[in-house]
Specification:
It is a single chain. This protein has two helices and no strands. By secondary structure, it is an all-alpha fold. The protein is elongated.
Length: about 40
């Protein structure tokens, strides 16, 4: 899903994704790839 947003909102959304309890609850040996596709 690509959206257009401000740099401030991008930072907020990226931090929310990277500190998500579900992401953090996964075992450390599991490789987690998170990609952000921002529309330019």
């Amino acid at each position: 899903m690509a959206i257009t947003t401000t740099e401030k909102n991008k930072t907020i959304l990226e931090r929310a994704a990277m500190t998500c309890p579900v992401l953090l609850s996964l075992h450390p040996d599991i490789e987690k790839e998170v990609t952000f596709n921002w529309k330019h």
